[in-house]
Amino acid sequence: MVGGATKKLSEGKTNKQALICILRRLVNIIYVMIKNKTAYIMPEQVKMNG
Questions:
Q1: At residue 50, does pLDDT exceed 60?
Q2: pLDDT of amino acid 40
Q3: How many domains does the chain divide into?
Q4: Nearest Cα to 13, choosing from 42, 22, 29, 25?
Q5: What does the pLDDT read at residue 6?
Q6: Burial status of residue 23 (CB atoms within 10 A of its CB: 0-12, 13-18, 19 or more)
Q7: CA angle 28-12-14, nearest 5°?
Q8: Residue 4 contacts residue 25 (beta carbons within 8 Å)
Q9: What is the tens place of the pLDDT at every residue in 8-47?
Q10: How would DSSP label each residue in the chain?
Q11: Max CA-CA distance within the chain?
């Protein structure tokens, strides 16, 4: 798992609970986009030095 899921796992959630949190966030974003009739605008990727 990546990104937000790793944070949820470190908070003590199970894999299933972490996935549900991430999917719920995604569903909320999609709902608002449909409600407001807006398109998704991809944010700029943050480049990490490494």
A1: no
A2: 84
A3: 1
A4: 22
A5: 86
A6: exposed
A7: 65
A8: yes
A9: 889 999 999 999 999 999 999 999 999 999 998 887 866 6
A10: --THHHHHHHTT--HHHHHHHHHHHHHHHHHHHHHHT----PPPPPPPP-
A11: 40
Question: Whose structure tokens read 């796992």?
Answer: 9
Q: Does residue 28 belong to any structural domain of this protein?
A: yes
Q: Would you say residue 15 lies in a domain?
A: yes
What pLDDT is attached to residue 36?
96
Task: Report yes or no: 8 and 18 within 8 Å, Cβ to Cβ.
Answer: yes
Q: Does a structural domain hold residue 50?
A: no
**What is the extent of the structural domain holding 32?**
4-36
Whose CA is closest to 22, among 45, 43, 11, 6? Answer: 6
In a domain, 47, yes or no: no
